[in-house]
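General statements about sequence and structure are easier to judge against a single worked case. When preparing material for the folding task, we compiled for one chain both its residues and its backbone structure tokens. The amino acid sequence and the backbone structure tokens for this protein are reproduced below:
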Amino acid sequence: MHMTIEQVQGRVPIAILAIHGDMDASNYEQVIDKARELYAAGTRHLLLDLGNMPFMGSSGVVAIHSVALLLRGEQPPDPQDGWQAYHSIDHARGGGVQAQVKLLDPQPRVARTLQLTSMSDLFEIHSDRQAAIASF
């Protein structure tokens, strides 16, 4: 997996973090670390481009949730806490759809994972890049 970052201007500045390749237990923390870097550099709106990510394991679910928490200025659960990281996702459901992080073009297997884990209820998911940018 590797990541690319693009800065675009919509109504607000938006960083687009594109993930290329599978996200799984071997690399999901890289996504969390990149989100930390972006937030520290001033990013407050993030579009996760999943169009080139054919597979996302359960650790990827934790990563995406952690990215949303970071962009809200909150600390995500420690990934080493195992199931506690998943339980924190349940607590997030009461907060509604994330305003700071949106998802773009998840591939079929990834979309299925988002649906099965109810993450699709927490994020706006777009198939069109321009519409996604305009939604912030």
About this structure: The first strand starts at residue 2 and ends at 9.
